[in-house]
Specification:
Keywords: DNA-binding, Phosphoprotein
InterPro entries: CheY-like_superfamily (IPR011006), OmpR/PhoB-type_DNA-bd (IPR001867), Sig_transdc_resp-reg_receiver (IPR001789), WalR-like (IPR039420), WH-like_DNA-bd_sf (IPR036388)
GO molecular function, one term: DNA binding
Protein name: DNA-binding response regulator
Strand content: 15-25%
Shape: globular
CATH superfamily of the largest domain: Response regulator
CATH architecture of the largest domain: 3-Layer(aba) Sandwich
Radius of gyration: 18 Å
Organism: Vibrio zhanjiangensis
Oligomer: single chain
Length: 218
Amino acid sequence: MRLLLVEDDKLLGQSMVSSLGHHGYTVDWVEKGTIVTSALKTDDFTAVILDLTLPDIDGLKVLRDIRKNGFKLPVMILTARDDIRDRVQGLDGGADDYLGKPFALEELLARLRVLIRRQSGCAEEIIQVGQLSLSLSKHIVLYNDQPLKLTGHEFKILTSLMTNAGRVLSKEQLQQSLHGWGEGSSDNAIEVHIHNLRRKAPDVIIKNIRGVGYVLQK
């Protein structure tokens, strides 16, 4: 799960990258709003965390540009501007959630999980696909009701496949769920992780659509 963080406070930005990374997210961080839409056009993100008070452009304008360009991914506003008018403008402008600063990390994580579940069409905390059950809050996967031992990268790939079950994800999209900007990976890394997932959960069907990508069958 890859997040785009738009935050001009360096200390807060660094802290959020570290904290969210510790909880299984890949986070790319920008400090200016004018590069957000170009970043979304270039890379594949699960959600955006957007501050409203930015040095170059108002965050509400960034939000409008995101929606005007047709991006439907969840956007969470995270700002010290906690006036009711700002909340209404943010939510009416296309934001999916609004969290004021200061905030508790636990609440931010919980709200992100809600947005991701909603995006995958699942209202419950547990995402179920066949014999697989995924808990975003506990960071575990059950296979036939037994804990599935996965590496960090295997968990991220399986999470991407489960939250997009039935939808083909390209190799590049899966790579982007693992690595942020400036982080490299070998060309065959995805194939290796998919092979390991198939070996650990042999009854789960992860199809390779030649020349397109991978899909987890519902």
